[in-house]
Amino acid sequence: MTLPTKMQAMVLTRHGDLDAYAWHEDWPVPVPAAGDVLVEVGATGLNNTDVNTRTGWYSKAVTQATTGGAYAEVGEEDPAWGGSPIHFPRIQGADVCGRVVAVGEGVDPARIGERVITDNWLRDADDLGNLDKTGYYGSERDGGYAQFATMPGRNALAVNSALSDAELATFSCSYSTAEGMLERAHVTAADTVLVPGASGGVGGALVQLAKRRGARVISMASEAKHAAVATLGPDRILPRAPANLRGALGDERVTVVADITGGPQFSAFIEVLERGGRYTCSGAIAGPVVDLDLRTLYLKDLTFTGSTVIGPQVMPNLIRYIEEGAIKPVLAATYPLRDLRAAQTAFIAKEHTGNIVVIP
Predict the structure, then answer these.
(1) What is the pTM of this model?
(2) What is the mean pLDDT of the chain?
(3) CB neighbours (10 Å) of residue 328?
(4) Can you give the pLDDT at residue 53?
(5) Chain center to CA of 309
(6) In this model, does residue 1 exceed pLDDT 80?
(7) Residue 267 and residue 265: Cα distance in Å, rounded?
(8) CATH class for the domain made up of 6-170+329-359
(9) What is the DSSP letter of 63?
């Protein structure tokens, strides 16, 4: 195909509110460098990293819950996920599904035409396991909020599936984040896993992937979303914020809490863990600053794990699960890329159950 030289793109110009985005009709189509592929974007999923990076929420100067709006103070030195600045202008959007339309030097031209989804973690080719040499697609380099995007060839993973581009664009962030959490917590069929925020993209993925491991799963979500959450197969569904979590659980023995919410319920999550239990966290949308009684941590022999950078084997495993039909997408809504601001507004307000995707 003859590739255009200009494209439509939604470009982030600074940290701030939704007006930090600028729509362009004539942004240059990127050229794949050595080792890169050029992907014609079919769909790109939204995730919390996009919102939090836009607003600068990752800065330690921000102590409140994710709001999606501008904050009064954002540290200049630590506004992105890695605790360092990013460069503007930046095209965000990590969760890409599309087709390879060109390749850079050193990439097999036979890859042209491949349908791919992204592995979002940008690793050092010579040191794949080094967390300090890891970046995030759409943060440390331009991503998929555009008609075309380049990425390292190793980050464009071939997928053979009857699912739509929009459905496939729900997997890269939500499901890899969830699988990374479950791996860090060593979840097995012997566990009972409590999943707060089960109606969101990561929460829904946690339910499915924990069930795939054979675990018993107790999800938490607002009652209006219980019917949708039930389709994911949890063993029980509790209200989003019961006044007495221990009482709501009854005789359940929770061995793992897989949490992306944090906030005022954090202490209750820790209190209900069994002795020797594990708490794993990959988000704090309800608030990043929490109360912890250290006596609970050490007297109950608990293990806490943070989970951000996933291992390089996670996405290939997820591709296999997708192709086998072992996991299903939870696509809540699609928006035109031009309407990214409206899509993020709906995402932040949790208007939908599952993932939101934008289409160029």
Answers:
(1) 0.96
(2) 97
(3) 17
(4) 97
(5) 11
(6) no
(7) 6
(8) alpha beta
(9) -
